[in-house]
């Protein structure tokens, strides 16, 4: 039997944020190997799905998938599949083809030798998934960004890698998109979206994922307070209904994706949350609204 | 799905612990060993900043310690470089964040002076995990670029 040692906790800069992994309950050499494998899996997701890396699947798709079908990695295919389902179930509110609007707002860089395409009408068939992990776009004007879902997927891959190494419990936190596994609950503090220096509540997380998003995206350099990186496809402008949301879901990819929908539709997202067995915390003007299945596990400050 | 609404009372917001957040992941020595497990000897090339890792008299890489200070951030990190000067690993050693401008005042910074690996700093020690909007790692990314520019070709 392996000798259990203390927990270990590591952090690396990945996915444009700080990724922290904390694990416990396995022998030290296994945990070191597991941590490396988990960070490697996340780096792989970044290489495949970054809008910024010219060789990523996402960049290849944006260049060529409007012209002919293109084979992508199984992970990219899985994320696209989930994104398309979320698009359909959210009546188009979750939309990975929002990239041109993000470029127009300066939230994504413009590509060399390519003007920003005019926004296209949101459509369920903008992205076509074909056999053998091939993908085709409806037109050359379709441009995707998986930034709204890939970070959550990376967290899920890291957890899978840790479990493959036999690690019984731990947590992966990618700048607020996090997932705990194992029996022991972990306390997570949620920042006040209007004042990130304060904790609004504590949530005990066990074997589930949490993802958060807020209007105030510049935590450290205040440029334009109140701006949001979540774009409403209906208006092509940042969502402004809520100050922030935190979503609980079985997987971090779903939690990550649902934060975008909830930022736009607020309490109207109830049915969608139920379908994905998810719960939500919505912040607006000093009010916190919590889904009824979850409120008993959310400990509000004060 | 039904919803339960709370109004967070202003007083509660004020009394809530400010989640100034700090974690120490690794000491410099621990990070050196993890970056270069085969190394038997680390020699200081530049005091407190650059080390050469050697195994059986052969250079296996370089270890560069750096610190970035942002408006609300204070991060110690290390870049392990291969003998050829490429990035082998970037590891965060210590992470501190705070709000209200303390980080810019010299007295706040002074509390870290002379800190040893045994004196792990804990502000509100029970706060271990924070979720919220994405934390920017831009400063570290820029720091790594700077290190590569400064040392990538110079250390041999």
Automatic annotation (TrEMBL), chain A:
Textual note on the cofactor: Magnesium. Can also use manganese.
Names of required cofactors: Mg(2+); Mn(2+)
Leading EC class: transferase
Signal peptide region: none
Keyword Nuclease in annotation: no
Top-level taxonomic group: Bacteria
Reaction equation(s) it catalyzes: L-threonyl-[protein] + FAD = FMN-L-threonyl-[protein] + AMP + H(+)
A matching Pfam family: ApbE
EC code: 2.7.1.180
Keywords in alphabetical order: FAD, Flavoprotein, Magnesium, Metal-binding, Transferase
UniProt: Mg(2+) binding residues: 148, 256
GO molecular function, one term: metal ion binding
InterPro entries, A to Z: ApbE, ApbE-like_sf
Transcription keyword on record: no
Family of this protein: Belongs to the ApbE family.
Protein name: FAD:protein FMN transferase
Source organism of this protein record: Bradyrhizobium nanningense
From TrEMBL, chain B:
Record-level Gene Ontology MF annotations: electron transfer activity; FMN binding
GO CC annotations on file: plasma membrane
Domain FMN-binding intervals: 70-151
GO biological process, alphabetically ordered: electron transport chain
Signal peptide boundaries: 1-22
Keyword list, A-Z: Electron transport, Flavoprotein, FMN, Phosphoprotein, Signal, Transport
Annotated TM spans: none
Domain of life: Bacteria
Protein name, UniProt field: FMN-binding domain-containing protein
Source organism of the structure: Bradyrhizobium nanningense
């Amino acid at each position: 039997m392996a000798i259990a040692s203390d927990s270990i906790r590591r952090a690396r800069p990945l996915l444009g944020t700080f990724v922290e992994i904390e694990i416990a309950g396995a022998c030290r050499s296994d945990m070191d190997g597991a941590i490396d494998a988990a960070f490697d899996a996340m780096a792989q997701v970044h290489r495949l799905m970054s809008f910024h890396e010219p060789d990523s699947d996402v960049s290849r798709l944006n260049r060529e998938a409007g012209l002919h079908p293109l084979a992508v990695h199984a992970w990219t295919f899985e994320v696209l599949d989930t994104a398309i389902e979320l698009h359909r179930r959210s009546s188009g509110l979750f939309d990975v083809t929002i990239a041109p609007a993000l470029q127009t707002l300066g939230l994504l860089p413009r590509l060399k030798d390519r003007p920003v395409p005019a926004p296209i009408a949101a459509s369920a068939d903008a992205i076509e998934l074909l056999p053998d992990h091939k993908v085709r776009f409806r037109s050359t004007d379709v441009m995707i960004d998986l930034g709204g879902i890939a970070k959550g997927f990376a967290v899920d891959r890291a957890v899978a890698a840790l479990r493959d190494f036999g690690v019984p419990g731990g947590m992966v936190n990618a700048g607020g998109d996090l997932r705990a596994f194992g029996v022991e609950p972990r306390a997570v503090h949620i920042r006040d979206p209007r004042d990130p220096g304060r904790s609004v509540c504590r949530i005990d997380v066990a074997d589930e994922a949490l993802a958060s998003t807020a209007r105030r995206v510049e935590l450290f350099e205040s440029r334009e307070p109140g701006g949001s990186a979540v774009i409403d496809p209906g208006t092509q402008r940042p969502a402004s209904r809520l100050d922030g949301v935190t979503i609980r879901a079985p997987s971090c990819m779903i939690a990550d994706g649902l934060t975008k929908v909830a930022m736009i539709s607020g309490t109207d997202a109830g049915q969608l949350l139920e379908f994905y067995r998810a719960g939500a915390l919505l912040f607006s003007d000093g009010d916190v609204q919590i889904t009824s299945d979850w409120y008993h596990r959310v400990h509000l400050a004060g | 799905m039904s919803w339960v609404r709370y109004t967070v009372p202003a007083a509660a917001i004020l009394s809530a612990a400010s989640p100034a957040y700090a974690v120490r992941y690794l000491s410099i020595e621990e990070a050196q060993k993890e970056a270069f497990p085969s190394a038997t000897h680390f020699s200081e090339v530049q005091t407190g900043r650059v080390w050469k890792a050697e195994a059986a008299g052969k250079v296996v890489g370089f270890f560069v310690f750096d610190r970035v200070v942002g408006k609300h951030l204070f991060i110690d990190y290390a870049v392990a470089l291969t003998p050829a000067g490429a990035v082998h690993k970037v590891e965060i050693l210590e992470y501190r964040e705070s709000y209200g401008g303390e980080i810019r005042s010299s007295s706040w910074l002074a509390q870290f002076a002379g800190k040893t690996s045994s004196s792990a700093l804990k502000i509100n020690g029970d706060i271990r995990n924070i979720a919220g909007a994405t934390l920017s790692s831009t400063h570290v990314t820029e720091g790594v670029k700077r290190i590569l520019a400064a040392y990538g070709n110079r250390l041999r």
